[in-house]
Specification:
two-stranded antiparallel ribbon; single chain; 2 strands; 8 helices; globular; mainly alpha
Length: 202
């Protein structure tokens, strides 16, 4: 179990650090490259939960949270992030991943795909909502009045084609769309990993 927890914590740390680096690089008008790596944190959490239990999965989540806080401190030193972004990122990660652990644990006895899919969907929704609202919504301006996020609250067509909405809503919608897609894609490595673990134990 100790070895499994170390591997899970290392994988989670790698994903968090990579995502913190890749979020600095744009993919298109709505996404950064970090949007494509971060959702795999849910895969790590779910595999740990399935194989080692909820308590160990929570420890792996805490390792990822510590890595994220460390990345925020480093980024702040280079003026690459703001207090609101760091706060939103930390709150979103911890809330979403711990929710993922709880939902997965409740559904673990069902079909093999149900627990990872449903827990990732709930976790992704919470992650997106918390991060983008805390980091960019004008409703949370009191968190850091000096942080000018007027650019994120400028009214634009949602995802370039929908009704008028704050820009951050388009960023959130695009991010959530990627998370939904990758929650489905991640079922493949989840199933393959379970098969390999069963074979190794046989």
């Amino acid at each position: 179990m100790q070895r499994g927890m170390i591997l899970g914590a290392a994988a989670m740390t790698l994903i968090v650090v990579a995502s913190n680096i890749l979020v600095q690089h744009l993919f298109n008008d709505w996404l950064t490259w970090g949007a494509f790596t971060y959702p795999f944190a849910f895969l790590v959490t779910d595999l740990t939960n399935k194989t080692l239990g909820a308590a160990t999965a929570r420890r792996v989540v805490l390792a990822g949270f510590v890595a994220g806080v460390a990345c925020s401190f480093v980024a702040a030193g280079f003026d690459a992030t703001t207090f609101r972004i760091a706060l939103g990122s930390g709150l979103a990660f911890l809330s979403a991943q711990l929710l993922d652990v709880s939902v997965f644990d409740r559904l673990r006895a069902g079909s093999w795909w149900r627990a990872p899919l449903v827990s990732s969907l709930f976790g992704s929704a919470v992650d997106t909502l918390i991060f983008f609202s805390v980091a960019f919504s004008s409703a949370f301006a009191f968190l850091d009045p000096a942080d000018n996020v007027s650019w994120a609250n400028a009214a634009t067509p949602l995802l370039g084609a929908g009704p008028e909405a704050p820009l951050w809503a388009s960023l959130a919608a695009a991010d959530f769309g990627v998370k939904l897609a990758l929650a489905l894609v991640a079922l493949v490595p989840f199933r393959l990993a379970l098969g390999l673990l069963r074979a190794a134990r046989a």
